[in-house]
Amino acid sequence: MKNMSKCILNFCLLWFMLFSASCKKNAVVAPVVMAPFYLDLHTFVNTTEIDTTHPVALDSAGRKIKLTTAQFYVSAIRLMQPTGFYYDLPGGVILKTIGTNSFYIGNVPVGTYNYVSFNVGLGDPDNSTDPSTYPAGSILAPQVPSMWFGSTVQGYVFMNIQGLADTTAAHNGPLNYPISYETGRPSELYGVNMPYQPFTVAAGQNNFIHIACDYGKLLQPLNFKTQNNVTPFNNPNLASQIASNARYMFHYQ
């Protein structure tokens, strides 16, 4: 009787294994549904949105600023999932300029995400690759105005801000004082984690995250009269401070 029970048990185990294998073989895995994801980045100074036709605004201190160039590279774009894992968007490098707001980043799995994160600037190997090696039209190819410091040692300009400022104490003078700020050393590559704000990527439609880029916050601590021309090579400490401020210039619209 004992041997008979053992045989029955073994038969049941064998049947279960064969049944399980058959189920796995015939199981249909549902495809991952993808949908287009965009970053919508708008240029602001304080509460005023600026563009190529309206480039003048007042910062929070009442200083009048005219931005003729205000652009930066964005890379390493990732979406934080509720599980605590990031969804990385491969090849997600964009160049945000005053004249362009919406950027297609790629197709991502539909679902809910907690926030978006990205770097301001470029990491290696992009930052140490000569722009002339990229085809015309590439974001990393030579740009006008230039976003390249001139050698693979110095690399790309991460942020390029050019314009004019009113430097009078009463903030009632003309816009005639040139300002120029550039960042770009590897140590000036900063990550930005947007605040926790769940959003849904839905199937069958374009999905946008709307973000304001406030140059008022970026330039707030600067004295335009005495600190009007900064690069990582003529004033590394101040360039590093400006790059660090980039972490605070973004907020949801």
- The unreliable regions are 11-15
| Average predicted confidence as pLDDT | 89
**H/E series:** HEEEEEEEEEEEEEEHEHE
Q: What distance separates the N and C termini? A: 77 Å
> Largest sheet at a glance?
9 strands, mixed
**Count of helical stretches:** 3
**Total strand segments:** 16
| Cα-atom radius of gyration | 26 Å
Beta strand %: 35-45%
| Helix share, percent | 10-25%
Domain module count: 1
- What is the general shape? globular
Structural class: alpha+beta
Can you give me a brief rundown of this structure?
Helix content is 16%, strand content 36%. The chain is α+β, with helices and mostly antiparallel strands and 253 residues long.
SSE map:
Elements: H1 2-26, E1 34-45, E2 48-49, E3 56-58, E4 64-80, E5 86-88, E6 94-96, E7 102-109, E8 111-113, E9 115-120, E10 159-165, E11 177-183, E12 190-193, E13 199-201, E14 207-214, H2 215-219, E15 229-230, H3 236-245, E16 250-252
Parallel strand pairs: 1-14, 11-15
Antiparallel strand pairs: 1-2, 1-7, 3-4, 4-5, 4-6, 4-9, 4-10, 8-13, 9-12, 10-11, 14-16
